[in-house]
Here is the input.
Amino acid sequence: MRRPLPFRLAVAAAAAVLAASPAPSTAATSAPSPANLSNLPPLYAAELENARSFVEGMLQAGVVVPVPTDPGGGYTHEQHKRNYRAIYLGGQLYRITGEKRYADYVRDVLLAYAELYPTLGDHPAASNQYTGRLFWQVLNDAVWLVNAVQGYGDVRDGLTIADREKIDAQVFRRAAHFLSVDSQATFDRIHNHATWATAGVGMTGYLLDDKNLVDRALLGSDMSGKSGFLRQTEELFSPDGYYAEGPYYQRYALMPFMVFADAIQRNDPDRRIFERRDGILLKALRTTVQLTYDGYFFPFNDAMKDKSLKTEELYQGVAIAYGQTRDPALLSVARGQGRTVLTPDGLMLARDLAAGKAEPFPFRSMLLRDGPQGDLGAVAILRRGEGPRHTALVAKNSSQGMGHGHFDKLSWQLYDNGHEIVRDYGAARFLNIEAKQGGRYLPENESWAKQTVAHNALVVDQRSHFDGDVKLADSIAPQQLYFSAAPGLQVSSGRVTGAYPDATITRTLVMADIPGLEEPTVIDLVSSDSRSAHTYDLPLHYQGHLMEIGFPVASNAANRPVLGKDHGYQHIWVDATATPAVGDGALTWLLDGRFYTYRFATDGRTKAILAESGANDPEFNLRREPVVILRQEKSGGASFATMLESHGRYDGASEQTVASRSRVSTMRHDRVSGMDVVRLTLNDGRRAAVVVSHDTDPAKGHRTKLGKDTIEWTGFAAVIPLAPEGK
Amino acid sequence: MRRPLPFRLAVAAAAAVLAASPAPSTAATSAPSPANLSNLPPLYAAELENARSFVEGMLQAGVVVPVPTDPGGGYTHEQHKRNYRAIYLGGQLYRITGEKRYADYVRDVLLAYAELYPTLGDHPAASNQYTGRLFWQVLNDAVWLVNAVQGYGDVRDGLTIADREKIDAQVFRRAAHFLSVDSQATFDRIHNHATWATAGVGMTGYLLDDKNLVDRALLGSDMSGKSGFLRQTEELFSPDGYYAEGPYYQRYALMPFMVFADAIQRNDPDRRIFERRDGILLKALRTTVQLTYDGYFFPFNDAMKDKSLKTEELYQGVAIAYGQTRDPALLSVARGQGRTVLTPDGLMLARDLAAGKAEPFPFRSMLLRDGPQGDLGAVAILRRGEGPRHTALVAKNSSQGMGHGHFDKLSWQLYDNGHEIVRDYGAARFLNIEAKQGGRYLPENESWAKQTVAHNALVVDQRSHFDGDVKLADSIAPQQLYFSAAPGLQVSSGRVTGAYPDATITRTLVMADIPGLEEPTVIDLVSSDSRSAHTYDLPLHYQGHLMEIGFPVASNAANRPVLGKDHGYQHIWVDATATPAVGDGALTWLLDGRFYTYRFATDGRTKAILAESGANDPEFNLRREPVVILRQEKSGGASFATMLESHGRYDGASEQTVASRSRVSTMRHDRVSGMDVVRLTLNDGRRAAVVVSHDTDPAKGHRTKLGKDTIEWTGFAAVIPLAPEGK
Here is the structure.
């Protein structure tokens, strides 16, 4: 086996890059002198300063390695997190500055762990079967190892043999054994927790020159290749680099993938790890960036909504990907992050950024297929415009995504003007806040956040998709029927069969430029093929203050009832209900100076429920957010046609208000021979039809006649101008 | 009488300043050539570009002067607003560029008004007795005149005699007559509407060389000086430059004050208008800026919360004040505004700003006395720190402030970390949004926003101060008992007698540095001297998501009742109630990464009501915001001692949480011989007392003994360290 020197290789590479700087430098292979450090690019210099500041604080506090007692957010939890950061950064500081006190501190901390580790059994605050040693769950122990082994690698060569052997044996071999043997069930999963575990164990193997550990990490604990890191790169990402659990976990999972792959590349370059499966890891990194709006991840599934590209896990990933690709678009991602890492890749990235080599990241409309073979549904992203206030529509036609998945098949979100307009609740959780269940997922994550009605997804008979059964949900994926990113007429259409025993749901979202209307305008067509009688609820979770309700409502102004008993309905307060007359109903809200009108066609029997989340929530765990639910009670199938129109401006500073009212006067929806026809009449008299044939043959012509309107088009969907009324 | 040439003087001055630029220039008194315009400072150049863009759009649309029909926000309302802007800016553009088409357009628009104006009677959309002609209320007509007369002044000399006479007679004399004669009741008020009217009429007088109009404007319609502009400068601002209606109206009122004063200064320099009353107008301008946090005005009384220094009315004021004072702090205000005006003052300001002469505006703790003589209460501002995230506490011990005043005596607000933490609802209104009552004040402005319980003010027997009677309220002002801006121990104390027949309310707010606690820490002491039995409610309207409630609550989780029937109580949903045990109760919320704990001492009988605004609001007119109400039912007086502690950090990006729980373990409140003693024990064992003697003699010593604690101090208030428990 090749002598692995990943960390010393890194030293040499770092020194080489430093030497290439315009600053005066000494021999390229010696430890860099302070003079070398005086002309660093700003991003890297700031990172060095951050690291120094943090590690100096830790040095002053001395070695503090407490017996683990607290759950997430508690003192011992946070201290062990601080420690792995200190080990990681202390090692890097030693490598970069040559100052021995950093190496000494890392050694002393690890010697303290060498005393502690052998005494540890299961963590006392364990809450599930995945129990850790230093932390309450094994995942955190894996994260500890991934960080600590990197810092250790930077100082290990300079230790006495006795210290080295003690730390090797009592800390790293024990930790690797705990993760790969004692926690074999986690280690052999095809799951991001296993990625962290295999990364920690594999990097330990490289450092300790232990081929067995490396092979277990790469090929699974039985070395068959049925599990392990390599298998994970095949199973956890779709061919488009989409990770089944969704963007929030994609970001998290990506770090061990990238860091371990980087170590593999340096130790086993013949494996060509970054070229595997058509470069899946680098593709996944770019896809992670595509899954954001204004820097924030689309928050579907169990996602914290404050998670953005400015996250520790991605600083490594972006630097490593830049090292592999020199893609100038990654520089602008790093600029947005305002952070990098203290590796040679980070230094090169910072230099090139400072040299003005950055180019904008190419955000675009795209279809991200889900599933290892790309056949388990998809996430469709429709974008319009550029910059932080552009429009993005996200159609979530992807698979359940395991335990963190939500029962939200065919749900969607809309971003516009820098905000989430049609929104996803994300997870019900306050990360690391002790008073909120120790920072864990809250009970309302199950009872509300995961339920179908908490999403912009069709609910049948007030029960969640798959009746809330994760196993069933994981066995059935939606299909992406059609996708088009054609300018001015972007379309995504998906279908799910099996979310309900008697309902095949099809949803087509059209983001179209319609003459006379502002952008974005979205048409949403939802139908269910069913045989029996059902109640169909179509919620729209919006953000903004209601300005106008275009139909009479019955208000629960002095006593708000709750909408239902379970499946999330118990968390919904009903403000008002209405049954608008035949034609269409509309309501308008205002958010940050922009008006949005949600309009729905009705045969006079669709009920509108204006409501708010937050009922049955004695601990104030939920955010209170408005929702409008359209309800149809039908024997057999049902169909909904709605539109979301953005319009006008409200400017508080100049007290100017423009177009605060919808530009649409009427909306009519017809289904003819399986085709959907939505006819709009604007206030200025103009008329147009948005038509969907649901036929994916781009060359096939379609024709329908409705009253005086004869409508002809070719392909899946179209916007057709109609003659004004009476002409 | 001196020959008035305000606008031609302005031309000459502008040309002079332009000539002083480093750009090549021709004769100083000629119209500036395009070459002169090529080297303008950025702020002025951008303004010129804005103006060109707007006026070009108007030119393309042609002259559109519709018959008035719509209320605020409607088409004719907005068109007449656009027209006065076009007249004003068109005149300026002509003066600056010499391009005749601008003058022609202004002339044509005014000739159209000359046709329209004689045909007008009362506006058809009038909603009160102050009916306008061009607009639904006379105020807007005055604003029209203030703007239009300035633009007309820039073009008038170049008109044919026939056009000039027609416009003089049919537009400006008629408008001035309408405002000063037909609308005499408004004109002779001591009120900001009258300031706009007198400014418009007076500036028309200067332009038309009509001494009678000028004198009416300056001295009132009877020229006695009992009303009119000069009297307004004496009556409407306090000696500290505070305007009784509050910051939102101060901003609005200031524009006609400054613009007309500027015209007076140029036409009647001997009046020394800017030196009157110790420079009250310039003082008022600076005070207006002091009444902001992060650029936004403190939103008490009928205020729109999105109103900031970036407001049309203040661009003029800042430029005129800079012209008078050359105060470099005003340059940083202009930089924050990012706007200026196309006057010689605006040009000089923009030049000096570009030359780097700006200095930070000196925001500071200050007491702003209210009332013409400064004896009608006060607004106390306590600031700590600097920059956009500094802390500011506002104690509103000022007078009612007329019809836009709220029944909120001794209320307070707290800003911290860039946010309003303890908040004021402001007005219930959506300005210029037609669907919301035509953009007028909503019914909920009376039923909620003005009521005492909608504020952080003591409510007795669930009725608003002065029983909601504006006349009574205007006749009684609070007293400011004490104010200190001493670093580390800032104090404001106020009292109101007469808000209730049987309750004299005293409130003392202390913002102190307490060893072991983070800043800001606020102690709030509220007491009522009463004889009979009453219910005392102390609401705290906060902003954030509840993290922890330190006492058991009875939740209305599935059926929220309403708290009361009237005086605002009908708009409060009750989420939960509690009667915490003897000692203290606390609740913690999170806002933008910062935790806040509100703690109150209790004898075991104080009830805590956790609630939210938004009940009985079928039109969704109200924002839904949380409030906690402390309720005491007492025979005789009552007293509340509460504290607001800020602590810790939540950082979603790094997933770091620090000190999410209060650092205080217990809080005890004692009243001894009229003194308040609040004793705190921290989690780390430290103890301290915050003591208030209520004795304004700074030299007087005070002493009290409570249990083992002997506490001695001098003066009104102090923070005294206490020995730890058991020592």
In short: Residues 75-97 of chain A form the longest helix (23 residues). Chain A has three domains: 1-208, 236-363, 366-722.
